[in-house]
Structures are given as C-alpha cells and as structure tokens.
Design a protein that fits this description.
It contains 25 helices and no strands.
Length: 510
Amino acid sequence: MTNEAIPMEVDPSQMSPEEIKNQANEQYKLGHYEEAIKLYSQAIEASPKTSTYYNNRAAALMMQKKYKEAAEDCRMATELDPQNVKAFLRGGKCHLNMGNLEEASRQYDRALQIDSGNGGAQRDYNNLQQVYNYMAQVDTFMKNNQWGLARNSLDRALSFVDNDSIPMKWRTMQAECALGEKNYSEASRIVNSLVRLNSQNPDALYLRARVFYSQGENQKTVAHCQEALRCDPDFSKARGLLKMARNIEKQKEVGNNAFKAHKLEEAYEAYTAALEIDPTNDHMNSRLYSNRAAVLQKQKKFEEALLDCNKAIELDSEFYKAYSRRAGCYMETEQYEEAVNDYRKLTEVDGSNREYHNLLRKAELELKKAQRKDYYKILGLSKSATETEIKKAYRKLALQYHPDKNDGDAKAEARFKEVGEAYAILSDSEKKARYDSGADLEGGMGGFPGGGMGGGVDVNDIFAQMFGGGMGGGMGGFQSAGGFPGGGFPGGGYPGGGRRQQSGFSFHFG
C-alpha cells in the first residue's frame, strides 16, 4: 500500500479555477507532473488571465525537462503580471538550460530590479556570470586549437545546467573538442546522439562526417557531407571536407592500382600526393605512409621505408600493420634486435597469429647469429659469397696478416688466427651449412661450439693447405704457391731460414 493519492479525473465544470489549481499542486508534490500539467491547463482554460497558473505549469514542465514550453509559460506569466519574480527566475533557468545566455541574463536582471534583496535571484545571476566566463574561455581555446583546455572550461559551464538536457550547440562543442583531442570514440558517441535527436541537423551531419573522416572512412565522409549540404547548401565547412575526402580517396586508389600493377614510381608519387592534401588527418596519413613504405620495400630502399614506417606508427601507435612492415625492413637491414622487438609486440597483440610467432622465432635466431662471430664479415664477404670468392678472400688476408710478415704485431697475429678460423668454417660445406642455418646455436657445431672453431685446428695447417709447403722452416714451397722468391718473405725471412719463435707463441686453439 502507498500513501500517495491516486490521480483522479476532475470535472472543471464542477470546480473553480483555484480548486483545480490546488488539485494540480497536490499532484505536483506527489511527483505526478503529467497529471499536474493537465490540471494546470484546465485551470488556465477556465481563467486564461491568471499569471500564477502559467507559472505553476512552467514549474511542472521544467520537472519534465521541457524547457522550451516552460519558458513560453514564464513569458505569459510575466506579461500578465510584470511583478512576478518567480516567473522571471524560472524563465531565466529555462533559457540557461537552452543555452540562451543573453535571454537568461535579461530574465535575472528583471527579477533583481523587482526584488534587489532576493538572495535566490542574486545567486542565480552570479552562476550565470560564471557560465558566461567559462563559455568565453571555450571560444578562445577553440580558436587556438587548445582542445583540452576548451573541454575543461566547457565542462565547468555545463555543471550549471541540466546534464540530461544539454543545449544542442554546447553538445556540438563537446563533439568538436573530442575530435580536436582525437578522442574519436567519445566524438562518435556524442555525434550519434545528436543525429538521433535530429537527422536533418547539418551541424550534426557534418560532425559525423568528420568522425568518419578521422577514421579513414572517406566514402562515408562524402555521403554525410552531401547530406549536410542538402540541408544547408551554403555550408562551406561541409563543402571543404567533401573536397578533401574525395581527393584523398582518389589519390589513394591511384596509388593502390599502380602498386598492384607493379608501377612503383607511379604508386609512390600518388601516395605522396595524397599525404600532402591534409597533414592533420593522422589516421589516413598513417595508412598512406605505410603504403608508401611498401613501395619502397619493393624498390629495396629499406632505410627510406623504415622512415615511413616510423611516421606511420608515430601517427597511429595502434596501427599494427606498420609494425609488421617495419620489422620486415629491420630484417632486411640486419637490425635484428629491433625486428625482434616489433615481432614480439605483434605476438602480444595477436597471440593467435602463427605467422607472427614464426617471424619472431626467425628474427630471434638471426639476432643470435648476428651476436656470434661473423665469418663473412671477417673475410670481407657477403653471405652469398661463392667458394671461389671465399678462397680468394682468405688467400689475400692470410698473406696480409701472416705473423712472418708482421713480426711482433699482436693485432696482426690475432687477425691471422681469426681469418683462418673463418676460412675453416666457410670452406667446409657441412660446417658452413650449419653456420648459415644457425644450427650451431641450437646444438653446437661439433668442432666450433658457440661460433668458435675449437677442435685444435691449426691455422698454420690451413695456410699450408692453401699455399703448399709447411710452416716450420721459413715458408718452404711458398714460391710455387705464388709467394715470395727464395722460399720466404723478401730479405730471406728470418735468420737461419726460419721464423722467430716467441715464448708461448702458438697458432693452436684449445
């Protein structure tokens, strides 16, 4: 059971206007605002010149957030009774909630003229002045593209109005601030609510077009701009956005088609032209930089492609295709640690993607391979070097750094050992295959665990095999291998036909 009175039909012919008003007041107190409005309307019909009835109905309408209708009742109330302070104050609140600050100020001024000592009127007036100040700040910040500050001031202004019935123009400002801050989900939420309220509102349609534009949806952008222009043919902002969206989409398609046709220069030029249309469109430009990077990859311009990938990620840190493309460029430029970082990020974002996991494992292996001795680099060769090129490189470097030719030079001695170690691996087809595949990192390489040669291989033996003859007595037999005349280096080698023996000197690895 409830103590609330049950609304009842009232026969106005059997009651005076005051009695009807009193019944309406009871319904208002009980929160039955719709019933109260009906009764106040009956009282007005019975006595249309009574200011109080309009004022009371305005109060009930305000409870239903029908501020426009309530403001009209307040206007009627003050026309009938120019001294009705309550009607002026209610009218001021209605106009404030509709965003009509000048009219709200006029209503409050009038109330204070009638009753200068009215504390409620002075409080409402002061609140209005704060709203004025905040909205002036919003206007300044928006003109300077200071969107965060503009949103903050707008939120402060909105704290003085009904949060469930924010004025349309202020909601529009909220959407503009969200777009300016690149908070596209919030902008979309606000804009969608505006379009639901009025699907023919050109401002709302334009803002929705901007949301689509910021998300790279150029075709939807074009459609909404066209609809906004149908509602307002003179809407210059919509016309400008329509032109940009069409131009970007056109250049992007030219680039895509050229890329598919392997016309790489044409594709590059088209993507570049698209990037120049609107430097502020981060989402679209991120994709365009990534597309241009793909062109540069095809052209083997990996360093330039990396720059474009970096720009794409800078503009949109959640555009993961750019990370994948950048990782590929890092692999091509042998920046394996950076490639591992990108592939690891991709596996964290999409753990079910087997391709990402495979690419990560490959990058990790290449990183490990890069961190051991690079035998190709030691010999000054590329990884595609032939057997003949390997022999030629070793022959040249072994002669250059042989200790007999660099007496007492520890660095040359170390280099000679390193060159021999490299040749020992790269000249052996089985060891070279294991080295190239990285199998040595997974289970050792027999004779050279951890990338070293080991196994007691003597670099002198390697040298002798290449040039013929032994190493123990000068360089006997060296002449027949294209060495120096007389079986040794110029000047006859070391005294006694041999080379100087130093304490602890050995070419063996243990």
